[in-house]
Every structure is written in structure tokens, then in C-alpha cells.
Task: structure prediction
Amino acid sequence: MQNSIDALKREFDCDIQNAKDLKYIEEIKLKYLSKKGPIQQLMKELKDVPSEKRPECGKWINDLKVAITEQVELLHTRFIEEEEANLLKNETIDITLPGKRRFFGRKHIITQVLDELLNIFSENGFSVQYGPDIDSDYYNFEALNFSHDHPARDMQDTFYLSPGMLLRTHTSNIQARIMETEKPPIRIVAPGRAYRNETITARSHVFFHQIEGFFVDRGVTFADLRATMDAFLAKFFGKDVETRFRPSYFPFVEPGLELDIRCLNCAGAGCQLCKQTGWLEILGAGMIHPEVLKNGDIDPEVFSGFAFGLGVERLVLLKYGIKDIRLFTENDLRFLKQWTSG
Ligand code: DAH
Result:
């Protein structure tokens, strides 16, 4: 045993003398002090040594281990210090070099405007709710008074996923869901994506964003709808805008209407933006149809309500004079970087 210990010591002395750098000392450390190294091996062999000799041999091995560890650690620390000193010596910092500008992400313009719209409605007492993008025919159509063969279904080319399931064609799918679970007064807005199987052009896309809103209570009238819309539009466009209601048809409202504002570009004189009409179409709205209230377990004899649905892309196009809806999804940074806030 003693011979083995001496041999190991000599081998180590030789190795350590050759240690010139950090890499080498790390190899030595691994070689001698690892779990499978020679010292551990000697420890294992200790059990074969006659018991009267065992304590003495154990001490030799331990002394050798302590000595090796000390020497290795000493050199290890020294090499690390040397290496750091060298690094510092060679490092130069040119403080005249320009800094690297970090690129910060930002919210997409559609998200920024969505947030802005929701804020306006929140300030006016509407709470924000979310409906599912994938929904049943019932909530997207039937509960909204579109029967199976209703011709108005053709106005909304639908992506069907499986019989009875579809990608919602509008965020109005929130209406019956909320009415089923909440009791009047209900005053909510529901933002989200809507999907239609349309040809993609500068004016239409297969998906876009809408905000649906509705208010149900006792004695809600057309005047409430008008006041709510006027307040919202003035806030959004930053000035009072002249509005008009034009009769229109949606199965879930009666009467139904479209809301126009005086053209922002020509103030009504007639231009390309308003197709010489002096007016811009902004959103659809109306008084909630009694059948829809009934589908939501609300008694139309007691309660009434208004609803509206607006297209977010359209509002952004108008507010910023953008001509092509496809820009929103092409993700060209030159376009998106124009809106810095958010
Ligand atoms: N859901 C309709 C659409 O996508 C928009 C709409 C019109 C919503 C009238 C309404 C409404 O709530 O009252 O074309």
C-alpha cells in the first residue's frame, strides 16, 4: 500500500511541475481528485489492508489527498488570476464609438386603436367581454334571428369547420351568450377577430377586427344609441363629428341602421374618400330585435336595448388615411413603425 501511495505522489509531483496553464491544471484536478481517480481507488483498497495497519494507511492516503488538493487549488487560483489580468491588459474600450440602438417592440396599430376604443367605452360605463372565435351556428346566426335559410346569411360568407361549427363572421356572437348569463342592466363591448370567406382586396380581408357593443335595460331608446355613438365618435376623432343614421337591415335589430359621419377629408364637399357623397360609413347599429332578447331569456315587454358593431380596420383607415387594408397583415416594419406609442 505504501508503495502505491509513494508512486502516486511521485507521479503527481511530476504532473504538477508540468502544469503551465489553466487547462492543464484542470486536467490534473480531474485526474487525481475525481470520484474514479486513484485516491478514491486507494481508499477502496484500504479494506484489504490488515486491520492493525489500516489507520496508518488511511492517514497517509488522507494526507496525500489534502496535499494534492491544496497544490491544485493554489495553482488553479493563480492561473485564473493571471488569465484575468491578461484579459484586462489587452482590453481597450473606445468610448468614442457610437452606442448600439436597441430595437423595442411595440403594439400593432390595430391593437393600439382597439385599446383606445375599449378605453373610450369603458369610460362610458361599458365592461369588456370576450366571445370565442370558433363558435356554433346557433350563437353566430340562429340566436341573432338568422333562421337556417335566411337570405341575410349570404351577406356573410362563412368558413364552416364542421356541421354546426364555424369561424364567427362577426363579434355579435357575444350577444346571446351574455344575455343568457347576465341580467339587465347589461352594458358591454366585445372586441375580437371576425372571419369571412372573401377575396382579399384593398378593402376586404378574410379576417378583421370588430367591436360589438350593446346595452339592455328598462326604457333604452334610440336617443341613448345616438348619444352614445356621438360621444364615442367625438372622443375617437378628437372633435365633434356630424353623424347621420341611414336605415339598413340586419336580422338582429329592428329598426336597423348604418351610421355615417361627415367626410373627414372634404367636410362634406365631396371627394374620392367619400365617393363624392360627403359622408363616410362608420358602423352598423339598431334597437335589439325582440326575438334576440327572447333567445337570451330577457323579456322584451320589460326591457329594450341597442346594439352596434364596428369594424376596427375601417376606423384606422379613416383616421390615418390608409388606403389598403392588406398593409395591416403584411407586417412591413416600414409601415408598422409609423405608430410609436403603445
Ligand atoms: N354584425 C354586423 C356585421 O358584422 C354589424 C352590426 C350591425 C352589429 C348592426 C350590430 C348591429 O350590433 O346592431 O356586419
User: Anything to note?
Assistant: The beta strands are 127-128, 134-136, 160-162, 165-167, 186-195, 207-217, 243-248, 253-262, 279-288, 304-311.
